[in-house]
Design goal:
- By secondary structure, this protein is of the alpha/beta class.
- The protein has 3 domains: 381 residues, Ribonuclease Z/Hydroxyacylglutathione hydrolase-like (Metallo-beta-lactamase, Chain A, 4-Layer Sandwich); 147 residues, Rossmann fold; 104 residues, Ubiquitin-like (UB roll) (Roll).
- The chain is 28% helix and 22% strand.
- It is globular and about 85 Å long.
- It binds zinc ion (ZN) (2 copies).
- One zinc ion binds next to loops.
- The site of one zinc ion (ZN) has 6 residues, from helix 4.
Length: 668
């Protein structure tokens, strides 16, 4: 799968694909063969601001060099250096970033160019914390900046998991910007943690940046540290040698984009999370013609979403869910309808709103993230609410059940969510009973099945009718299935292919799918987080690695929950804690008070008095022995007691509680 250097001569595929990729066809937007916009190689264009120095690298490397039309928007002067007390280590003022329409992009691949580096810091062999670095020469950009949710082993007080950003610190001086594909947490969730340390500009579409801004407010990141650029599909942002074009796409959140990343070594297409929806609810259909144009001109590398790579066929259009809602709204008759879905799925929320209006019902909203997203999406014009349709949750009692639709969070069974509180009769405004018709419009993410089942059971027990999972088509995925994945690969015709956004099994399956549409196995690379991947005229290969892993955030701080703390929390939850308290005269070593042994969550003390007595005797024996040897280092007492008691408990009970020796020294 990794292309070896020595094989190049006999594998002309890259030249077949990329040779002659002068990008000189008309109307593709890839070419600006227009006499007013002369091609410039290494010299600054005429109308460039004079104080901008010509970099050494730009003399040597001809591409990409966007021309500078009148429409061009210089982004950097708007950014000011954040005068934050925090350790803001990079000034954006040094960046020369420009935004312009793609029709003005002049791009030419340099056949002699060095390879481009692709460094995934998250998102491979996992679903979550997507983050990829694209590096060329003295420039780097970041694609997506996501978080993951803790898995079963990590749940103990860990709220969020983010990528290891050690490498970001190493390249902080060349990191020009962050480009975000869409507003899901696994793509934006790490931004607050990045931006509190580095003042780097972030680019995304309107809704994406709207959601990012909401996140910043939540995390208290000061306004001055927020350097956001709003782009639209068809825009190009040039960071210097690397330029990024935003391409309209479809996903379970509006305003998602795919990216074409132009580097001197070639063009990289990053699909972001995508599906092909020919009848989307909000926004246009994915811009397949654009991907085909790029494919014809020559694509070096395709990075594509693997989430649904095990599923054959096509993902149904979001619109099909609306059709199911029709039938269900009819069936609900005189009942109040409660629908739980992802807050960010604004397509879905819009369809619920539309159905409510059609059936003469009012809409109320419950759940913090639903209320937040609702207001951001309405404010930005993505969600259209007819006047007078929305009612406050406080006013529910003013309406009959058949006059209401309640949209809520909690479709994944999240314990603190609105739906969960309704199920456990803990919701202050909503009491569920036999007058309720509840639709869970989502499929549980693997790992959440148990929590969802628990809530469904509770709701059924309260007498409600509950529609969930695959009973009706109340949910469609936001990710492409195999046929859509094939279509993207066939249109992009990349020299190299790298599946992203998936567990290993998803990446593997996606690689197999790529082979069926003609990508040779040797041109497919299965990467892993932290790998330094080089792609260019010499093929594609892994040339090294950087630190990558999971950093835990537990509300108190970033990274101060190490794996040791996590192990302690896990042991505490499973095996409990045992404390040994004693006072020792350290000048004249002897036991003064104790030892006293207490346990919490470890054993029922009554049933194990004998064990506790044995442990006490063991502690006495250790203290007396050390005292006899005149040991006056209190730490030695602590360590010996901890070790001996842990061993003894494990030996007799096969359990490992945390043993905490509270040994105090006194000198009389
Ligand atoms: Zn997504
Ligand atoms: Zn994602």
């Amino acid at each position: 799968m990794v292309r070896e250097k020595e094989n190049i001569a006999e594998k002309p595929v890259i030249h077949d694909t990329l040779a002659g990729a002068q990008f000189e066809r008309e109307n593709t937007g890839l070419s600006a063969q227009n006499p007013e916009q002369p091609r410039h190689r290494g010299r600054p264009p005429k109308n460039r601001v004079p104080e901008e120095p010509v970099k050494e690298t730009s003399r040597k490397t001809p591409a990409p060099s966007p021309s500078l039309p009148d429409e061009e928007e210089e982004i950097h002067p708007k950014f000011t250096h954040p005068a934050s007390d925090r350790d803001v280590r990079q000034s954006v003022g040094q960046n020369k970033i420009k935004k312009f329409p793609r029709s003005q992009l002049h791009y030419e691949r340099d056949p002699e160019a060095a390879s481009v580096r692709i460094i995934p810091l998250g998102g491979l062999e996992e679903i979550g914390k997507n983050m990829t670095i694209i590096e060329y020469g003295d420039e780097a950009i970041m694609i997506d900046c996501g978080q993951a949710f803790p898995n079963d082993d990590e749940l103990f007080g860990v709220d969020v998991v983010i990528p290891d950003m050690t490498y970001i610190d190493q390249i902080k001086d060349k990191l020009r910007g962050v480009v975000i594909t869409h507003g899901h947490e696994d793509h934006i969730g790490c931004l607050p943690f990045l931006l509190k340390d580095y003042a780097v500009p972030v680019f995304g579409t309107k809704l994406t940046i709207g959601l990012v801004n909401g996140k910043m407010r939540e995390h208290g990141i000061p306004e001055r540290a927020r350097l956001f650029g709003v782009v639209a599909p068809g825009d190009v942002v040039s960071f210097g040698q690397i330029s990024v074009e935003f391409i309209a796409s479809n996903h379970s959140i509006p305003d998602a984009v795919a990216l074409a990343i132009y580097t001197p070594a070639g063009v990289i297409i990053h699909t972001g999370d995508f599906k092909i929806d020919m009848s989307p609810i909000i926004g246009p259909m994915i811009d397949l013609p654009r991907i085909a144009e790029l494919g014809k001109a020559g694509v070096l590398l395709l990075l594509s979403d693997s989430t649904n790579s095990e599923r054959p066929g096509y993902t149904a259009s979001e619109r099909t869910v609306g059709q199911s809602f029709d039938g269900l709204f009819e069936r609900a008759e005189k009942k109040r309808i409660i629908i739980a879905t992802f807050a960010s799925n604004i397509h879905r929320v819009q369809q619920i709103v539309d159905k409510a209006e059609a059936f003469g019902r009012k809409v109320a909203v419950s759940g913090r993230s639903m209320i937040n997203t609702f207001s951001i999406a309405t404010e930005l014009g993505y969600l259209k609410i007819p006047d007078g349709l929305l009612v406050d949750i406080e006013e529910l009692n003013n309406y009959l059940p058949e006059q209401l639709v309640l949209i809520t969070t909690g479709s994944q069974g999240e314990p603190m969510s609105a739906l969960s509180r309704m199920a456990f009769s803990d919701h202050r405004k909503v009491e569920v009973d036999s007058g309720d018709f509840i639709i869970i419009s989502a499929t549980p993410i693997p790992g959440n099945e148990r929590m969802v089942t628990k809530i469904v059971n509770r709701l059924l027990k309260l007498g409600a009718e509950v529609i969930y999972e695959r009973m009706y088509d109340v949910h469609v995925s936001g990710h492409a299935c195999q046929e859509e994945q094939k279509m993207i690969i066939s249109l992009a015709k990349p020299a190299y292919f790298m599946p992203v956004h998936g567990e290993y099994k998803h990446l593997k399956k996606h690689a197999e799918t790529a082979e069926t549409v003609g990508i040779a196995r040797k041109n497919i690379l299965l990467g892993e987080n932290g790998a330094i991947i080089e792609a260019g005229k010499n093929g594609i290969s892994v040339v090294g690695s950087v630190p990558a892993g999971r950093v835990y955030v537990d509300g108190l701080g970033v990274g101060d929950v190490g794996s040791v703390v996590l192990r302690d929390r896990r042991l505490l939850s499973q095996d409990g804690i045992l404390t040994v308290a004693a006072v020792i005269d350290i000048m004249n070593p002897r036991l003064v008070v104790g030892p006293e042994i207490t346990s919490r969550g470890f054993v029922f003390v009554k049933e194990s008095e004998q064990l506790l007595e044995t442990l006490r005797a063991e502690a006495v024996r250790i203290i007396e022995e050390l005292a006899k040897r005149d040991v006056n280092d209190i730490n030695i007492y602590r360590n010996e007691i901890k070790e001996a008691l842990s061993k003894r408990i494990y030996f007799s009970m096969k359990r490992s509680p945390i043993v905490v020796p509270i040994i105090m020294a006194m000198s009389i």
